[in-house]
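Hi V.,

You were right to ask for the full record rather than a summary. Here it is.
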Amino acid sequence: MSKPTVEQEARGQGAGSKGELPSIPLQPNEEARGQGAGCKGELPSTPLQPNEVGQEENPPSPCSPASYPPAPLPLLETQKKTRSLPPGLIVRLGKFVWSTMWHLMMGKLAPRNQSGEYVRPNSQFRQAISTEAGNPYQPELGRYRLYVGLGCPWAHRTLVVRALKGLSDVIEVAIASPSSNEGIWVLDRSEEGCRTLPELYQLAKPGYNGRSTVPVLWDKQTQTIVNNESAEIIVILNSAFNEFALNPTLDLYPADLKETIDRWNDKIYHAVNNGVYRCGFAQTQAAYDTACNELFATLDEIDATLGTSRYLCGDLVTLADVRLFTTLFRFDIVYYGLFKCNRRRIQDYANLGPYLRDLYQLPGVAATCDLEAVKRDYYGNLFPLNPGGIIPNGPDVTSLLEPHDRETLGKKPALQK
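Predicted structure:
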């Protein structure tokens, strides 16, 4: 049965009522007349005034129908008003409570500096896999495992390089998903006797008290984490497993372009890869404005560069393109709305839009892109940014399969070997 309205309650028409009298607080003059709810034939307890004494020999029972005339409309309106707090007070109280809780939650989710700017903590495991003598982590077939989250852009870049290099049969993948209730990454299936990523980190380093994040490059032989910094993992995947790779001659980090790649990487990391997070996780207006301006200034610069160059460093795909791609793929889906990066969509840029389609259509790349996981992980798990947890239906990303016509800008195949 539906909840009665305030007016129905005032008229005794509420759910479950059986003609009972309303429990409206009575005015002093009504109490004096014996019109109090719940009386049992008693005379009113309010003493009569001297001029009223003896005026009625047989006063009517306070419970008789005649004692309860219909409440006048002005009284009902008065009662409805007195049943709720002033709107202004409710709004101020709600804003205070939510703002306080929001800052507490954001402090755990996204560490900030004194200016309210998001500061990303450094990764803690930074070893490499190589054939150097004495290195405990030698390249071997089937020895290593990647732990990734399909919605995470940092983990996504490792999947892209793994696909481009043809390492699917060399390095296995385990999926972790963020838990909105636990606030941690939970493995889709138990690995190494662990259910969650923090348990895996503890297995690698007992007593570890840092953040437990993806991606993780795991050594099954020594039961430890080799590296959890995505920028370094993709360098390892590019070169350490060439003897097992299907595309061993593909070099995404060639020596003659390293300086240019590194320069783009530094710029893009600060303003774009991490820049969207600096917008979404900003805790002051000034911090947001700074991050947003830097983000779109850099996107404008990239768009201008792509007007005459197929990729960031020329005719060939490099790690700089891979690192930019995973942010661009999520931009219109998540960052534009949820992270307030809404000055312009990627698809609205003359060159960035086709460039995104070009990268998406490279062999194996589309298979690493999980739109539903991206929406679920961001909208469904970032409670401080989306407390209702509602996940949007769109957008339709089939447009990424439309022709990009960027081949005319390059003189070599995108993945020249």
